[in-house]
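How it folds:
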Amino acid sequence: MDTSTLSPKRYCWGLLPKNITVDMIELDKKNASFETKSKTLLGTSTIAIMIQPIVKIGYDMLKNLFVNYEISQQIFLKIVLYFISMLISYFIIWNSLRKAHKIAAERLPKESKKVRLTLRTTKRRELTGYIFLFLNLACLLFFLMLNDSEEGAILVINGIISLALFLSVWTMPPISFSYRNKFLTVEKIEKI
C-alpha cells in the first residue's frame, strides 16, 4: 500500500470526504525484494557525536546572521526566514518520497497487479495534520517574540517539526489503524 497516494488529502486535515482511495500493488508472499537489511556500520551514539560539530557550526552561522544583519528587529524578514525553513523541510520530504517511489518501482516485479482501494469514511475525523501544525504555530509565536539572536535555534526546531508535518500528511496517514478500528470500510477494489 502506497499511503502517499491517498486521495483526497483533506482526509488528513479532519475533513470527511465520502470516500478515500489509495493505490496498492499485489506482491507474492515469497517476494523478498522489500526486505530491509541494516547497512549502518556506525552506532547511533557515534552518528550523534559526528553530527554535533555540524549542528554547532550551523547554529553559530545562524546566530551571527541574526546579529550582523539585525534580523531580530525586522519582522518581515523573520517571517520569510521562518517559512523558508518550512520550505526546506517540504523539499526534503518531496525529494525523499520521489526517491522512494523510484526505488520501489525498480524493485517491483514487472507482472505485479496494481489496484486502487476505495474506502468509505465513517464519522471519525483524522486530525493528524493539526498536531504538527499547532506546534508550527507555537514555534512561530515564540520565534516572533525572541529578539536576542537565538532565533536560529527556533528555525532548526521548526524545520524538524515541519518535517514531521509533511511526513505525516504525505506519507503516513494511519489507514491501517483506521481500517482495523472500523473507522474506514472497504467499498471496492479495482484494477488500475
Q: What stands out?
A: The chain has one domain: 2-25+44-191. The radius of gyration is 21 Å. DSSP finds five helices and four strands in the chain.
